[in-house]
Amino acid sequence: MLRTPPDPRPLNALSFDLEDWYQVLYFDELLPPSQWSAQPSRLASVTARLLDILDEYRTRATFFVLAYNAERLPRLVEAIQQRGHEIGSHGFWHRPVNRQTPKTFAEDLKRSLDVLRSITAQQVTGYRAPSFSITHESTWALRILIEHGLEYDSSILPARRSYGGISDAPRSPWILRYSDGRSLVELPPSTFRVARRNVPFSGGGYFRLCPYRLVRWGLQRLNRAGVPGIAYLHPWELDPGQPVLPVRWSHRFQHYVNLKETEKKLRRLLEDFRFVPMNELVSAVLRSLSR
Q1: What pTM does this model have?
Q2: What does DSSP assign to residue 235?
Q3: Which pLDDT score is estimated for 4?
Q4: Does 2 reside within a domain?
Q5: Which of 10, 178, 266, 285 has minimal CB crowding within 10 Å?
């Protein structure tokens, strides 16, 4: 029986934040969580198409699931898991961490983990904050993640951002160690340096706005330096037919720019690079740092 030879290309991680089209932070002024249940969900159909694309390229990823959606669409989460992908937590209500107290954050996190574990019958080891909203002022959240059994986080964007970001944070995966011996692996979204500033390019609106050749160049440059790339998207970014809301022009641009091009660019990304789920990258990072 012939075996497929191992892929010699550098490891990178791919993830998707499982949100519906109306759950992004900048739509909150029009559609707060109290109105979510009245909106037409497009999440199941677009995620099914995304799973087919990942199957086509034999790629497994991490889905950071908003547990509000998991509670309403448990079969979708089961389907993601059955297709070989990792399930991580994206919280329950999609509230920015830096707008919460430690108490409300811990409650939201626990609720999300309880929902996800009840569906998957597995431990959840990874977390991503809504809108990368762990900042200098809210790093207390990292210890709470450890206290709830999380092993890695992907919430600290090492760049300036209106909703969050820590611009002087490390650009490559790193380990946060506490004096009590506990630790947490941090997997920051990929950035490159321009005029002494970190510029995101590998996910979300950055990915949709940047020419693909720039995305490819950025990931190749990281890989040549021995740094894994970390890319992310949302299922709604593959859905150009979603409703268009009358939001301010900056939010309209941020959300709707190049939606028609996302699938094509994602396919090119899957052709050009080797991706694994985030938890597999964590294992590789721990092995490399222990040498």
Answers
A1: 0.94
A2: G
A3: 53
A4: no
A5: 178
